[in-house]
Protein 1
Amino acid sequence: MNTAITVPRSLLNKVPEVTLSFWIIKIMSTTVGETGADFLAVNAGWGQTATRSVMAALLASALFVQLRTRRYTPWIYWLTVVLVSIVGTQITDLLTDAWGVSLYLSTAAFATALAVIFGVWHRLEHTLSITDIVTRRREAFYWVAILCTFALGTAAGDLATEALGLGFAWGAVAFGALIALTYGAWRLGGPAVLTFWLAYILTRPFGAALGDLLTQARAYGGMGMGALWTSALFLSVIVMLVAVAQIGMNGRQATPETN
């Protein structure tokens, strides 16, 4: 028996509809998180500490704006996602490269942390659905979970491609296959909320493996495009898709006023 949960709707739903465009932007933002962080820290000469500080400050600012809005605004939402991707990558890199934490340990720790976040979220809100992010508390849970999925995805991706020796190409294939299986499970009637979050987690290591495949030198198993060109290409596509979404959103908001 289904039991309806009554929630005071102080906000319109704050996240986008899950469409093909959603997944394209999500995957590309994960790749930018991988390549963008590397470009700023290494190619641009910022160094890891300065890059982490600047990106954390930008993420805090973007989250402040996102949480202040009362409806889904494409450019604000996706800017926040891209910054979360970069910061999530840097959290895992900090643990692995600077602190020497094993990828096995960090992957397990982030998986446990995400399970705890989901458990508390569901206990308090009785749902993990992203189609009902209509209160500040739900949105706070959502963004904490998103950050954790990016950190977990980075650790799991590095574990698969580096520690387990899959390499970039086979890592992308492996995670792509898992995403396809998750999609198939959803199409066959699997739980929508569960399959969404599984796909969301899996797109992070898929995007990271894809980013490394494109950017790394051929001697290391990559295609040698470099972080600058890969980041610029993917950011261009993200900007184009987000602009289309923003124009469409503005059009829908203006329509009732002209009738």
Protein 2
Amino acid sequence: MSFAEGTSVPIERSKAEIESMLIRYGAEQFVSWWGESEARIQFRAKGRIVRFCLPIPAKDEKRFTQHARYASKRRTEGEAMKAWEAELRRLWRALALVVKAKLEAVQSGIVGFEDEFMAHIVMPDGKTVAEHARPMIAVAYDTGKVAALLPGW
């Protein structure tokens, strides 16, 4: 069973909860955005811009169009839409949980802000630290050699 499976909390309430949390923990800016394949939240805190991307599943995925118990039986269009909307609500609840846990860990002194949010910090070129690091991690594991993170080191 996935976290928040079956939740009835509307997406708008989850977004509002995230924004409210960010304000409480000292964020200076907040924006949310959505498109066909992903939604994003972005905020500024501690002098850094942080971005979370939430993948939006396609409405025509098998998990929405077919019954889980009866794989050969297709759901009606309305049933498929309800299943897809339920998954979006669940994903937004999960994102709210992640953000809350990270903010609380920082507030409690368990970790530093940059350590906890590092993968999601937006660099001056618009890419996150994770987008920069992922290829380097892959090369390190493929070759067994760790490249310098900063030129000249």
Protein 3
Amino acid sequence: MQSNGLIINLKDTSFSYSGNKLILDHLSFQLHSSDRIGLVGPNGSGKTTLFHIIMGLLRPSSGRVELFGKPAHEEKDFREARKKIGLLFQDADDQLFSPTVLEDVAFGPLNLGKSPDEARDIALKTLARLDLFGFENRITYKLSGGEKRLVSLATVLAMDPEILLLDEPTNGLDDETEEKITEILKGLNLSCIFISHNLDFLFKTTDKIYAMVNGKISLDEELVPHPHIHVHKFGRLPHEHKS
């Protein structure tokens, strides 16, 4: 970890798909150790693209990406950083690819060099943390949408990351399950960025909320986490509250 706590640093970063309109437009962004950041913005504003740039799944057309104090240019740079960053995809079907839940959750620890027995133990303990007892032998593709979200989160947490990047983690969850996930995430001592349209979730789990508009990120002064249930000032970005 860097002495100044800077762990993700994007400088003047731009990206477009097939040379079209810039999705990221000379964007600069920093994540420091212990930061808990919520990220909001309209669909198509580049929130998911930002995560994919950080993970090296997409490469910027210009600008600089630094992870854990080191420039990240080549696949080998990102491969090392991915061992410390847990990414939850917006679509659970992009995350789950093994026949059974246990195989999916154990896959990450195995890739990190754990033995099969160690990976199995980690997977079972992670499933237990998420109240997924008895899920280990369930067939992944037969799970409900909400169950897939929970198992996807388990695959991320099983890798014991230093940073969490979660893309719409409460999508497809009922109120009870969402509350469980919220309490788990609140209890994690990790740096994190959570993309969500669910402001009540962000107020409970993050310390500051940034808005992504026109390819750039800025602190939204109207979105200061507080103990109330509803936000009464929120003009320019779409959002939702639990009733």
Protein 4
Amino acid sequence: MKFTVVTPSFGQLAFLRLNAASIAEQRGDGVEVEHIIQDGGSKDGTRDWLTTRPDIRGIAESDEGMYDAINRGIIKGSGEIFSWLNCDEQYLPGTLVAVRDFFNAHPEADMVAGDTIVVDATGEYMCHRKAVVPTTGILRLGRTPVQSSSLFFRAKLVKEPNAILFDPQWKAMGDWAWLRDQNARGARMIRIPRFLSSFVDDGGNLGMSLRAINETRAVYGALTPLQRATEPIVRGADYLRKFLDGYYSQKPFDYAIFDLDPASSTGVAAKRRSRHVATPTFRWKGRKH
């Protein structure tokens, strides 16, 4: 099975090296990986570094933001399964093999969403988020209950006639809008119950920005009076579904990600380092949901 992984890039070479290492490691065991990096104008050495990586398809061209960059990469891609992995995200060991096997076992699935480990800039555990297949009601409220770093989808959703790409008018909530539109067209998502990726929370993420807050408010402001009145019911049903699915419980576990090299200003990836999580938590400091 061939995967196309798109990485939108802009001035994050240190993290990008780790991202690329985690993707390159996935190759083998019947998994083919096409890694496309769409760089929108980095001046930190990213473009020079890309010339040293024949295993990566690096494209340097201006874009209209992250979602436009993802679209550009998708259009160039030729995989059977697509995903996007931002510079500060990594795949965990065995992720693509697990996703391949899951898609093969579930031909009815158009999308697969797994669980995500949230770490700080040094790779230390902060919390985790388990994926929740979104309902129409939750999406209507502007909620995105899956992390994009652990989301995979079949090529037909973005390649066939009438396919849906990302709307670049959204600068922080494009993944939400895309999931909403895919849900409306009947695309089926299934959760794979395992950790697939890590995501860095360094306090400056786009999803936590003022732009994201304003876009969320705009979505909520567009709700009808009936939709606002039924919000408690929608949220209550979602909390119950999470509880029954084990969202709020997690046994201690280990994870392994590539580290930033403290001896290098560019953060050269050396090898994965394993960490143990003795007290897992779903509580993400600074996030309300």
